[in-house]
Specification:
six-stranded antiparallel barrel; 3 domains; six-stranded antiparallel beta barrel; single chain; flat; alpha+beta; Pdz3 Domain; Thrombin, subunit H; 364 residues; 5 helices
Length: 364
């Protein structure tokens, strides 16, 4: 009798498990179908951008960019190295190939990353989804937000999302579709992912886990409902976050709308001067009833480097205030002034350390 009960229970469990798998499969098919449909609908708005620069132009790179990921391998204790003198050479490390942009109005206005159109430019060619090519001119750039406005002499259909000032902010975990057209034949590239953080690096930048690279930078990001969410930006070759790290950044539509008025008037928006500490921190951890931020790396020749901060130090307080998370820590540093002396409370191998550091000026 007991054997029969176990058999019936097993059959019942198998039936419900099979039903659950079937329903899950149908739901995934529906999601995939919706993603493909949105990609097809948005494809006409994404363009290929080819930038021809003067051969004599060479790019000035910020100090320490090569060592962003391997600073902890440098010799300790601290030594005053001439890193800036070594690494501030003009090197051609910008990736080759075309990039992406998106059409935002019927007047031929196109948005892309400001990084995409940096340098001494001779010619910019835009290829539309129908294969037609046009010469483009740069109207203005926002260096602070990594956004540039271009214009071509063509009338074209505009994305519906930019016809309204209404903007509904998505939630963390929502689907995102990254569209680019940076390949040689201007074919559409589509990458799917989710919005993994809102305001991960700043209030005006979202983090996504969809694949982002040099070619789809400047491309459009849509929701599963077909709503324009924003533009792929901040993927320069000296970025702290590499494209292969599985992290990408999106300039939200609300920020784009805010910036467009100035850009359309031909006004360039400069980078804001920010204070600079020079540490790369990882996620927070709890220890001894407090929350600490682990130092994953210290940038060469930075205030933290000269102040004595080491990799694997744990930072618990800034100016006597406890740190909640990575974003909070970045905000605490950015709220200070350039040249201001800050007080860090550290833990190094179970030894508490109080440290004074004078903040420098960020180059980014």
């Amino acid at each position: 009798m007991k054997y029969k009960k176990d058999l019936y229970l097993g059959i019942l469990c198998f039936f419900f498990f099979s039903l659950w798998v079937s329903l899950l499969g149908q739901e995934m098919k529906q999601i995939q179908s919706a993603l493909l449909q949105r990609a097809r609908e948005a494809a006409p708005y994404v363009v290929k951008i080819e930038v021809q620069r003067d051969a004599s132009w060479q790019e000035d790179l910020p100090p320490g960019y090569i060592l962003f990921q391997d600073v902890e391998k440098l010799p300790w204790p601290n030594k005053k190295l001439k890193i800036k003198d070594i690494l501030k050479k003009k090197l051609k490390l910008r990736p080759l190939g075309s990039v992406s942009g998106m059409i935002i109005s019927s007047q031929g206005e196109i948005l892309t990353s400001a990084y995409n159109v940096e340098g001494k430019i001779e010619k910019i060619t835009v290829t539309l989804s129908n294969g037609k090519t046009f010469l483009a001119q740069v109207i203005a750039k926002s260096y602070a937000d990594d956004l540039a406005l271009l214009k071509i002499d063509s009338r074209t259909k505009a994305p519906v999302a930019l016809k309204s000032d209404l903007f509904e902010q998505p939630k963390v975990g929502a689907w995102s579709i990254v569209l680019g057209r940076g390949s040689k034949d201007a074919s559409l590239s589509v990458h799917y992912g989710i919005i993994s953080s809102l305001g991960s690096t700043s209030k005006s930048s979202w983090q996504i886990d969809a694949k982002v690279n040099h070619h789809n930078t400047g491309g459009a990001v849509f929701s599963i409902k077909g709503e324009l969410l924003g533009l792929v930006h901040r993927t320069s070759h000296y970025s702290k976050i590499r494209p292969s790290s599985g992290v990408g950044f999106v300039l939200p539509l609300s920020e784009i709308q805010r910036l467009l008025k100035q850009l359309r008037q031909g006004v360039n928006i400069p980078r804001k001067k920010k204070p600079y500490l020079g540490v790369r921190v990882e996620g927070s951890l709890k220890k001894g009833g407090y929350r600490w931020m682990e130092v994953a790396g210290v940038f060469p020749d930075s205030p933290a480097w000269h102040g004595g901060v080491y990799p694997y130090d744990l930072i618990q307080k800034v100016n006597g205030k406890s740190i909640r998370n990575k974003v909070h820590f970045q905000g605490m540093i950015e709220s200070c002034r350039i040249g201001e002396t800050i007080f860090l409370s550290l833990l190094r191998q179970d030894m508490e350390i109080e440290m004074e550091i004078v903040l420098g000026k960020a180059w980014y």
